[in-house]
Q: What sequence folds into this?
């Protein structure tokens, strides 16, 4: 019988509880690559290390709620879409995606995210107003 030291068991258990669903990591990577961004560009925008982005994509760590909101703003998707296991849920949003032609800096990505947030809020308001009619 092989005994695993307690500290190793604890670390293994911690790693398992920190893991995310494969869907979230795959979706982050898909949306990032569809936009033509490197992990470093996304990390600069999110104000995290490139390794942290890799951890998110490989399902080793979960992004914080604040990071998830920044991702949804940048990619122009709803939180439900980024968590969805169904790729068709992102099909409409992908239609409005663009691909980076050059190196985008964090400040430019913040402007894109702000613009997409405005458009998203406008669409939501328009939908609410159309229900009233």
A:
């Amino acid at each position: 019988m092989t005994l695993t030291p307690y500290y190793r068991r604890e670390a293994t258990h911690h790693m398992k509880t920190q893991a995310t669903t494969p869907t979230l990591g795959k979706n982050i990577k898909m949306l990032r690559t569809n936009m033509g961004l490197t992990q470093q560009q996304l990390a600069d925008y999110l104000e995290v290390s490139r390794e942290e982005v890799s951890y998110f994509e490989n399902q080793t760590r979960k992004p914080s709620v604040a990071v998830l909101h920044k991702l949804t703003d940048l990619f122009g998707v709803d939180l439900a879409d980024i968590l969805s296991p169904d790729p068709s849920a992102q099909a409409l949003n992908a239609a409005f995606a663009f691909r980076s032609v050059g190196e985008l800096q964090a400040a430019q990505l913040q402007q894109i995210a702000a613009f997409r947030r405005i458009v998203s809020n406008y669409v939501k308001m328009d939908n609410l107003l159309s229900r009233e009619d």
